Structures are given as structure tokens and as C-alpha cells.
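Q: what does this look like with magnesium ion bound?
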Amino acid sequence: MNSTIQDIQDRFRHLRLAETASGLPALLRKAEQASWTYQEFLEELLAFELKRREEKNVERRLKWAKFPYHKTLDEFKIEEQKSVSTRQINQLRELNWLEQQYNLILLGPPGVGKTHIVIGLGLEAIYKGYKVAFLTMGELVHVLKTQEYLSKSKTLLKRIRESDLVIIDDLMYMAMDQREANLFFHLVNGLYEKSSIILTSNKGPDQWGELMGDQGITTAILDRLLHRVEVIQLNEASYRIKHRSTIFGDESVQT
Ligand code: ADP
Ligand code: MG
């Protein structure tokens, strides 16, 4: 019983309980002040380690997801977007679709909140323990094309393949050539029935064929994407434009 706190901390670290090691002095002080029983002390110690580990895991998954910005579903003003209901958003938030490897497609013109909603869903997934990857279609095509010679792209692709949810934003802003469409097909095929994919696009699947060039590949991609899918159409006028900041007058709302 002659160990110093320092010794005990070292042994916790040796047992890979780093969080407990650093929190130990404060926990001991609290235990003395509140006269915890031995059992209470142990419970607090374990709860502390588990809570810190989970927080660190969430941080790690957030970093891995690479969201362009963080906006939650709570920040999404449902009254501004009449084409989705609170019930729909709440249902999506429950993540049953992710549990069952369903895909989601969000369609609508620019500024209606597609990216906001998918980031919000991505955050919910991360808090529930899922691995999420976010990237735009432009980034994805670049990564797919450079995987052979850029180790950064190779690492990124590995991250995408290991994710439970892959969010591909702005699917069809760019036309793909045949090679790109082929690479995209292989990725989608690899993720099929293992992970969920969320796609956002300003064009519907009926127009994707033109942009992918090859009808055969388009059919194969759509086949996998649309097999188990929920499509959400957002039609309300652009939130960006409704709430644009203007230099003429005070009624403007900053977005
Ligand atoms: P899209 O991806 O459909 O082009 P975004 O999701 O990027 O549109 O939305 C544009 C901006 O407007 C973002 O800053 C987003 O947070 C905001 N926005 C859009 N719709 C809403 C909404 N219903 N409530 C709150 N903010 C919104
Ligand atoms: Mg967007």
C-alpha cells in the first residue's frame, strides 16, 4: 500500500486505461469529499473510463467523416421546407434505414437543404457508433481516378470502403466519362448490401444516364442503388435565396 498516485497512474496506463490514469487524482478527491463507498468509487471510475473512451471514439469518427461543416437536424427548420415533414425527419433520424443497409437519395434544386440534412444524418450516425464518410462526387471521382498512384487517394478509398455510411454529395454536377463511370460502379458494387449510401443530386435518376455516358453501366449502378432506397424530394424554394443577406435593408437574415 505504499504506491504513490503516480505509480498507480502508471499501472493504469500499462493496462491501457489511460483515461482513468489521467482522471484519477480528481476522482480520488471527489471520492474523499463525497465519502463514496468502495463500490461507488469503482462505479465512478469505470463510468469515467467508458465515457471518455466513447467521447474519443466520437471525435475520431467525426474526423474520419470529413464533413464540410457541422449542422445538426435540430438546426434544420422544418417549417421552411414544406416538402418534408417532422415525422419523416424523425423517422430518418432513427437510422433504421442504415441498420438495414437502405440507401437514401435526396433530390432538389440548389439551396433547399440537401447537404444540411445529410450532414445532420451523418452526425446522428456517428453519435450512434457508425463510421461515416462524406465527400462530393467531384472529390470521389478524383479519388477513384488517382488511387493507382496517389497513396492519399488509396487511403481515402479504404476509409470509404470501411464506412457504414457513405455520403456522396452533388452527384451529377459533372458528367462522367466511361472510365469514371466504371470506377464508380465498382465502388457502388463493393458497398452494395454492406453499407448505406446517401446521394444528393439536383437531377433525378432518370437523367443520370445521360451524364454517365454508358447506358449499361448506368443501369448496373442504378440497379444496386435503387434496390433498397428511400427517395426524398425537396421542392421548397431555396433557403439560401429566401434568407440571402442583402446590402439593401435590414430585413435580411444571415445564413
Ligand atoms: P443544398 O445542398 O440543397 O444546395 P444546403 O443544404 O447547402 O443546400 O443549404 C444551403 C444553406 O441553407 C445551408 O447553410 C443550410 O444550413 C441552410 N438551410 C437550407 N434549408 C434550411 C432549413 N430548412 N433550415 C435551416 N437552414 C437551412
Ligand atoms: Mg449541397
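DSSP finds twelve helices and five strands in the chain. Residues 5-63 form one domain.
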